[in-house]
What we know:
Blueprint: H1 2-17, H2 28-50, H3 57-90
Amino acid sequence: MDEIRVAYIRRLRAVAGMSHLRNDEFDLTRERAQTERIDRELKLFALAEKRGRLINVEQLEPAMQEMVRSFLDVLMALAGKLKTEIDTAYSTDI
């Protein structure tokens, strides 16, 4: 019975070692590597957040909206000024 178990374990190890020869449908080694990469990325994000290197989008959004509104106001003010300058330069009034 022990010989059967040993043969079975050897077979499992051989199959696991030939993962690059199998199709990509079920590749345990590749799945484990992908899981490790994802875990590493999550830990790096958590560390960056703790160090204050990440900005929460929900906190940033209101400030960005205000900045865009201010920029739009400046552009709209320039549009009127530009029209006046064009009218003066070309003696037109459209």
